[in-house]
Amino acid sequence: MTETATPPLPLVSVILPAHNEADYIGACLAALLSSETGAYSAEVIVVANACTDSTVAIAQSFDAQAQNSGYGFQVIDTPTPGKLAALSLGDASAKGVIRVYLDADVLVSPPLIGQIAGALNSDAPLYASGTPQVVPAKNWLTRAFAGFWVGLPFVTHGTPGFGLFAVSAKGRARWQGFPDIISDDTFVRLNFAPSERLCLPASYSWPMVEGLANLVRVRRRQDEGVAQIADLYPELLANDDTPAVGLGSLLAAALQDPFGFAVYAFVKLAVKTRFASTDQPWARGR
User: What is the SS3 assignment for 278?
Assistant: First the structure.
């Protein structure tokens, strides 16, 4: 009996927007290009937008490693600022059927891209991400905040997709260009019903911003992003399956980690004030 060869998986395009990420992008690309090889092929598109540091040069230095790993590789250096414009520019250059959108400070574990390729090799509209691992912070306040935050339903339930998300071909057809909004990850995630979102077992590492002022800026920015989606795309909120944090569960968590809860509550309170205003131009909050 003649064995039937397994068809190769579709091409995976990893789109990596980067604005002044010289401190992070080298480690990000090193981890990505060390991914376990398998039945899939991939290309990496770094979109360096309005960079004034060495992001472009660092990214370009990975060309040989990408070729040795069998990855297509290009660095687009654009003077146009903004993550959403960078995502759209990367999409326009991408040839892959499966699209992975990766932040420049994220480190993927070796099996993750292969798991994404396998999971999204489907005619169905699907969304996928890995299992996030928050990197231990250097700042004591951020460590305390993160220790409490990782136990909240947004992180523990479903597929949050912060820092890394991916879609199948029919999934990408759910929207046209990226809209000019604050929260691209929330917008994409809520374009999919909970049953269409896959949380894969392979992990990725994601750093939280350091220090009180940055935490408040980022948390406020995230709240503004959710409110913007509710205003512009209210129909998407039907796909939000994040359980509400009830008073009982919040009190139980506070008893288990009173210091972490105190820091978390203080940051939440500061978000409602003018502390660490976001009136200044937004970059990343680092």
Answer: coil
Q: Are 115 and 130 in contact (CB under 8 A)?
A: yes
- The Cα–Cα gap between 99 and 102 comes to 10
Q: How many residues are present in the chain?
A: 286
In the block, tokens 């995976």 appear at: 12
Q: Per the structure block, which two tokens stand in for 155?
A: 């992180």
**DSSP-assigned letter for residue 183:** -
Element at 34 (helix H, strand E)? none
3-state helix/strand/coil string of 137-161: CCCHHHHHHHHHHCCCHHHHCCCCC
Q: Which residue has the tokens 């992008």?
A: 25
Q: What is the pLDDT of residues 49-87, one digit of tens each?
A: 999 999 999 999 999 999 998 899 999 999 999 999 999
Each residue's pLDDT tens digit, 102-122? 999 999 999 999 999 999 999
Q: Which of 133, 112, 135, 134 is nearest to 198 (CA)?
A: 112
Q: What is the DSSP string of 86-155?
A: HHHHHHHH---SEEEEE-TT-EE-TTHHHHHHHHT-SSS--EEEEEEEEEPPSSHHHHHHHHHHTTSHHH
pTM here is 0.91
Question: Are 34 and 110 contacting, i.e. CB atoms less than 8 angstroms apart?
Answer: yes
Strand 72-78's sheet: what is its strand order? 72-78, 42-49, 12-18, 98-102, 164-167, 127-135, 197-207, 107-108
